[in-house]
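TASK: fixed-backbone design
INPUT:
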């Protein structure tokens, strides 16, 4: 009987270990993002999913964490098994209650060698970068539009220069360092570097390594407010790129964004304030959309500065492709696939696009995360827009569903047309019964992959 109880306890503790390892990995081992996960209804959702094992991606680090954790559990069993009576059962109970804390401590212990290794890699990358005296580095940061701007710029500049860019969605210091170490060579003339951050100081750290001469600030919003702590910290954090530029550098700002306009005014080095109307690109016949205009304008300003003519830039537009795709789905539906990630601005701009389309309009999205104390207000704004544009809204997480629903109803959306549905199969059936040919569905942020597959196939 005692052995059976220990086996059951061991299995439950193992489930807990797997779950917390998965969650820490999901949040990139970043304490601020991890903490933000529990500022919303995600805590209840995480707890309810306890009985299903969450498998992390099996990297070397995760294998080491799980292996150490299993060994640690074995040692615990070895020491408490000889206990008798109530002492034995009480020990098991206390340890099980402490299992989330113990699991997280095991993960954090492994952060120590990770930090040491990361520091070594960053120093090594910085030393290699120093050898490339003639390399022009373009840094791109902002709360949104980083990846699109980087991809557009790399495509256009590659017509005239040998260009290296960070791969899609790799924008953290360790990923950038590995690109320098593994891919940068003497043939490269330009290195285009997307830089992301969850806290102040990180962009500065990257800039000390890459030494950018041109900085592009794509826009600032409340995205990652919970990890930065305040909007002021976000603004200061993003501005670290501009502060890191040399005196003969160039700072390019998105003139559509009020925070960028304010930062433009305080910048002393050579600078450009770019608005979409400065570059009236013709998008007809291209794979680009209205929401790409701001990023295209920033791209055009940088390319012109580096010697490309407007005509050369326009001729490249046919080769560019928006990261957000419009695909044909079941029943002839038009599917706007924006399922990588989302921020408040992108959601609003995509809804503006939907407004101009024919047919019934449907949005499927989870509540947005890491918005801190402004989360409720932001979801009210999004709900208001949904109510004005959409015929049906399906929200896949309940964190701020009440705010979304209340605002959508105030904008005229019937109560039964904004729904909280978490299961992909139920969402699919609802869409199937509600929509017909040529209706349009916006899939925003991290909706279930199985739903995307069902709708598009």
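OUTPUT:
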């Amino acid at each position: 009987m005692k052995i059976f109880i220990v086996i059951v306890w061991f299995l439950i503790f193992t489930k807990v270990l797997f779950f917390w390892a998965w969650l820490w990995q999901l949040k990139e081992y970043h304490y601020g993002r991890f903490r933000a996960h529990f500022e919303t209804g995600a805590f209840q959702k995480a707890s309810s999913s306890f009985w299903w094992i969450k498998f992390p991606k099996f990297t070397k680090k995760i294998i080491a964490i799980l292996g150490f954790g299993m060994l640690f559990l074995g040692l615990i069993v070895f020491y408490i098994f000889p206990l008798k009576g109530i002492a034995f059962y009480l020990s098991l109970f206390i340890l099980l209650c402490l299992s989330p804390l113990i699991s997280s401590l095991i993960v954090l212990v492994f952060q120590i060698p990770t930090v040491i290794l990361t520091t070594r890699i960053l120093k090594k990358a910085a030393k290699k970068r120093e050898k490339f005296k003639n390399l022009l580095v373009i840094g791109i940061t902002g709360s949104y539009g980083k990846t699109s701007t980087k991809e557009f710029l790399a495509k256009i500049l590659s017509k005239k220069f040998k260009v290296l860019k960070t791969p899609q969605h790799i924008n953290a210091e360790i990923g950038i360092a590995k690109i320098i170490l593994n891919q940068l060579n003497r043939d490269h003339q330009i290195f285009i570097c997307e830089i992301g951050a969850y806290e102040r100081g990180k962009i500065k750290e990257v800039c000390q390594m890459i030494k950018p001469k041109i900085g592009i600030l794509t826009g600032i919003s409340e995205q990652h407010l919970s990890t930065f702590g305040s909007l002021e910290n976000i603004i200061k954090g993003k501005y670290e790129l501009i502060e890191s530029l040399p005196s003969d550098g160039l700072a390019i700002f998105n003139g559509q964004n009020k925070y960028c306009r304010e930062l433009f005014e305080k910048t002393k080095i050579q600078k450009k304030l770019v608005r979409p109307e400065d570059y009236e690109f013709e998008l007809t016949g291209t794979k680009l959309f209205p929401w790409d205009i701001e990023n295209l304008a920033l791209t055009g300003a940088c390319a012109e500065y580096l010697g490309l003519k407007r005509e050369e830039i326009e001729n490249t537009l046919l080769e560019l492709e928006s990261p957000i795709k419009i695909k044909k789905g079941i029943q002839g539906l038009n599917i706007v696939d924006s399922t990588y990630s989302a921020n408040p601005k992108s959601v609003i701009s995509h809804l503006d696009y939907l407004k101009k389309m024919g047919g019934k309009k449907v949005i499927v999205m989870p509540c947005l995360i890491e918005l801190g104390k402004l989360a409720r207000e932001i979801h009210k704004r999004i709900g208001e827009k949904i109510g004005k544009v959409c015929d049906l809204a399906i929200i896949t997480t309940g964190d701020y569903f009440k705010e979304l629903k209340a605002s959508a109803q105030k904008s005229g959306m019937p109560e039964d047309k904004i729904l909280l549905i978490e299961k992909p199969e139920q969402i699919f059936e609802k869409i199937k019964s509600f929509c017909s040919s040529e209706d349009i569905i916006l899939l925003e942020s991290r909706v279930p992959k199985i739903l995307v597959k069902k709708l598009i196939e």
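COMMENT: Residues 80 and 414 are 59 Å apart (CA to CA).
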